[in-house]
Amino acid sequence: KEYQKSMEEGFNWVIDQPFSKRAVAFASYVACGIIGNYDHAVDICKFGLRTNPNTFLILNNLTYSLACNNQLTEAVKYFDKMGTCVDSDLDRVVYHATDGLLDYRSGKPQSGREKYEKSIELAQKLKEESVVLKAKMNFIREQCFAGEIDEETAMRTITTIYKEHKAVNSDEMKLVIKKIEENMKIDNKIR
Hints:
10 helices
């Protein structure tokens, strides 16, 4: 409930300050990364791109949300634009993870695996533990969706990884894990 309220307040922030990159990044992250409301995240990001068309984080959140909704053609369009906005090592980490997501969703698991592994390796070198954790959890979700591992193994692995990263254990991460678990169950019923 708190995160739902955060998303609503974030959206109000975006409406009040449509020029604010932080407002759009915050609201879209809560919508896509925590709550899993990809449609809402897409709307927020597209609204934000009107005043910030070359903002890496907004383009990433839009690409991620579209990919998670299996709207791959549109996701790739924004991903291509996102590639021109990479300007830090952390951006490169996120870029490779999102590229891995797109490959998995496009039926190219080997390439997707390599890109996720590269992302995780770069994040570890940067000592960005929360990014390592998120990349690993998303990677495992995609392996499950691709049929490389079963749902039970995926959840057991995610739980183990979460426990290994005690430095970033938080309510946010618990909610992300719950959302990934829900998405896996929904997606496995659809497939």
